[in-house]
Amino acid sequence: MGIVFSGVIRVMYKTRFGIRFYDREREADCLERVVGRGDFVVVWGPKNIGKSELLKYFSYIVSGRGWVVYYIDAREYIARKTIEVYPSRDFLGEFLDMVRDIVGVPSYLLELFEKGIRFGLEKKASGILWVFDEPHYLSNVKPFLESIVKNTIYTSYGKPVSAIISVSDGWFITSDAMHSLLDYGVKHLFVDELDIESFKILYRDIVSITGINTGLDVETIYREYTGGNPGYLIDLLKHSSTNEWVNNARYSLINKVVRIERGSGFPREQVLRYIASLPKTINIQHISVDEYSLVEKLLENNIVYYDIACIETIVKPVLPVYKLLAKELLKEYKETKQAHR
């Protein structure tokens, strides 16, 4: 049983920023194929690359084709214990929120009522999809994810059951829990930077809404600042100036480098030199254990990511500005050391 996308639904969808969805049709089509078979899919990629927006977009489309979608944002769930339901969030979610405010209604009755509504939704659905955004924020996540994998093996009321989770690239590559999922045969989809033409369209759409003018041309922003990362573009345009955004990136990079130095013992100078020399070709079989360990630490701290499109792995900065800032910080660090001699 496959999912048939509707062009009308796609045009209607707007992102949380108020603009149309930007150039993730290839990823959406990949998700269509695996979800329609009732598979478990891991969506992974660098921070702010648009994984969450892709999942919301896909949930919107799938629900428009008759699927029931339970969307869980891990951080929202930790804070408020909320689950978003497509397409019936207005009916189910808001009604239950209202009922919870009624004094004297036992919680077990609310749970039974909610189960009853979900039973009705699932009975008439084309399929059931669980979407979990960033579950790695939960404690003891490994058995939880393995249980979801096992649930997708079965059908519910004769309907396919599928699941999608999104995780950071660092967690995907270094986590034991993820290695366990891959052993189960879980599918995965890498979400990369936008190409330059799609990035220009996104930039134009945001500027048309906000009226912001950075004073920089879009290609400079793409190549020297954000690297085609849509989340960082939005973040840059939210700041009062490009200099403020760069200063924030500088402060963030310093904190990450210090964290690596304290937690792993890699000297600050070595870490900064490595970042300043990015991108680097990495052949896992021919690099030292120290270099491999350093790359892992940079991945975990969202400083670099793998370009998996290359046969020989390329390690790239999540933000091109990190490379420039690392060079500046390395120079300052050396000057400070000389001044103290």
Number of E strands:
9
**What summary fits the major beta sheet?**
6 strands, mixed
Instruction: Give the strand order, joined by hyphens, for the main sheet.
Output: 3-2-4-5-1-6
What general form does the structure show?
globular
What helical percentage do the residues reach? 55-70%
Let me know the average pLDDT.
Answer: 81
**Straight-line N-to-C gap:** 71 Å
Strand/helix succession: HHEHEHEHHEHEHHEHHHHHEHEEH
Unreliable stretches, pLDDT < 50, 5 or more residues?
1-11
- Radius of gyration, CA atoms, in whole angstroms: 22 Å
What keyword list fits this structure?
16 helices, globular, 9 strands, alpha/beta, three-stranded antiparallel β-sheet, 341 residues, six-stranded mixed β-sheet
Summed up:
Helix content is 55%, strand content 14%. The protein is of the alpha/beta class.
Description:
Helix 10 runs parallel beside helix 12. This protein starts with 6 loop residues before the first helix and ends with a helix. Helices cover 55% and strands 14% of the residues. Helix 7 links the parallel strand 4 and strand 5. The strands form 2 sheets. It has a 6-stranded mixed sheet with strand order 3-2-4-5-1-6, with helices on both faces. Strands 7-9-8 form a 3-stranded antiparallel sheet. The N terminus is likely disordered. It has 16 helices and 9 strands. The chain has 341 residues and is of the alpha/beta class.
